[in-house]
């Protein structure tokens, strides 16, 4: 038998370490060459790690949520062959993974003995299991401390619950309501940890000022309905966002300080002539910000088409790196869940974010009577180091004027 130690590959671009976000195998699993073993996340992308050889996994170095340095051991694979230990270090090609180059065998190398799992001490520790498994065990009256986990690091899976249930060992369920004392501890990993780090960075380094203004979008909604009724089959359905994007393009042309980023370490503000609008988008994995690039060169329908494309790519996980970076100003919208007002967090290192709240029909006094109008609030935040309160108010008032008289959006300056 031979044993290969697969090391964390060097993915380039100055990346020194990565976080393990998913294991597809556990010790004892057979693997084939090029089979995906794990997924790791760097600051820039999520990368799949394929097996350089076929064999059996004998040891996994790190758990999900832990970071691993470049060239540090990831996994050992036992294969048919000589008894030497070889080390795989280089990153296989992205398009068509090939067997990773293998370094020279280590002379007289003997794998270090790994600590064996200890069922006897398992009951004294908090069992490793996902929230779904814990909920299933709670509903079924199963004490997870009695279940032997077969997953990585002894993690309990649904299959382990099935096997345990078949053994007939159960805890008796008391009649009537019972006290619940369980606490699920969920480690923050992967994209959720990146989101947490980005939010903490934005709030800790940017003094926010938030400005809320209501906008009468009755005429805009009427125009939008007419344009949607006459749209071509290949055109996407218009939401309010493409109109807002066009209003932003016109307004930042007058106030370029809003379409900017601030490098506070270097003390440099970068103002952009290009308007790359980030759209905060909720995905199954968490909040990401796909970017509609060069909105200044797009019309309403083109903005809508590109917005739909990058948002769909973000939701299904196919977005490229350049589609998730490089924004110069961001829009945050929760649609019908938008609430009355919000305090959006600036997308660091930008200096402004426009928050869209939900549209509601409210009575509005027209000077002689109350009439129903469709109203929407804009809740927007600005970097107070760069943007003064008056400038923030002027910026939003200009956007408000364009949205309330949408014909102005289509008039060239």
Describe this structure in words.
With 413 residues, the protein is of the alpha+beta class. It has eight helices and 18 strands. The strands form four sheets. Strands 10, 13, 14, 15, 16, 17 and 18 form a seven-stranded mixed beta sheet that branches. Strands 3-6-8-1-9 form a five-stranded mixed beta sheet, with no helix packed on it. The chain has a four-stranded antiparallel beta sheet with strand order 5-4-2-7, with no helix packed on it. Helix 6 crosses helix 7 and helix 6 crosses helix 8. About 8% of the residues have low confidence.
Produce a short descriptive summary.
The protein is of the alpha+beta class and about 425 residues long.
């Amino acid at each position: 038998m031979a044993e290969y130690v697969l090391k964390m590959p060097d993915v380039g671009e100055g990346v020194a370490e990565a976080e393990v976000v998913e294991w597809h195998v556990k010790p004892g699993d057979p693997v084939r060459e090029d089979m995906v073993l794990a997924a790791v996340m760097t600051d820039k992308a999520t990368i799949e790690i394929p097996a350089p050889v076929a064999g059996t996994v004998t040891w996994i170095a790190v758990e999900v949520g832990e970071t691993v340095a470049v060239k540090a051991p990831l996994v050992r694979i036992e294969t048919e062959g000589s008894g030497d230990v070889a080390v795989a270090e280089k990153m296989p090609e992205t398009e068509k993974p090939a067997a990773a180059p293998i370094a020279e065998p280590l002379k007289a190398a003997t794998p270090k003995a790994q600590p064996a799992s200890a069922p006897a001490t398992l009951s004294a520790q908090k069992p490793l299991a996902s929230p779904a498994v814990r909920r299933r065990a709670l509903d079924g009256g199963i004490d997870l401390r009695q279940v032997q986990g077969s997953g990585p690091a002894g993690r309990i899976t649904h299959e382990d619950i099935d096997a345990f249930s078949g053994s007939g060992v159960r805890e008796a369920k008391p009649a009537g309501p019972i006290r619940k004392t369980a606490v699920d501890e969920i480690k923050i990993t992967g994209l959720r940890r990146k989101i947490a780090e980005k939010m903490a960075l934005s709030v800790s380094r940017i003094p926010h000022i938030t400005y809320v203004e209501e906008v009468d979008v009755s005429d805009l909604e009427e125009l939008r309905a007419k344009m949607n009724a006459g749209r071509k089959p290949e055109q996407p359905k218009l939401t309010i966002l493409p109109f807002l994007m066009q209003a932003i393009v016109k307004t930042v042309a007058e106030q370029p300080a809003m379409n900017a980023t601030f490098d506070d370490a270097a003390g440099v503000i970068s103002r952009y002539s290009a308007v790359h609008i980030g759209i905060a988008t909720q995905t199954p994995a968490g909040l990401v910000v796909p970017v509609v690039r060069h909105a200044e060169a797009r019309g309403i329908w083109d903005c809508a088409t590109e917005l739909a494309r990058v948002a769909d790519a973000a939701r299904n996980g196919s977005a490229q790196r350049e589609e998730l970076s490089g924004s110069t100003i961001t829009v945050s919208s929760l649609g019908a869940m938008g609430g009355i007002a919000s305090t959006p967090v600036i997308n660091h290192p930008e200096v402004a974010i426009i928050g869209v709240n939900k549209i509601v029909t409210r009575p509005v006094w027209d000077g002689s009577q109350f009439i129903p109008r469709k109203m929407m609030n804009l809740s927007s935040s600005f970097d107070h180091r760069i943007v003064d309160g008056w400038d923030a108010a002027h910026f939003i008032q200009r956007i408000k004027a364009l949205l309330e008289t949408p014909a102005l959006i289509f008039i060239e300056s």
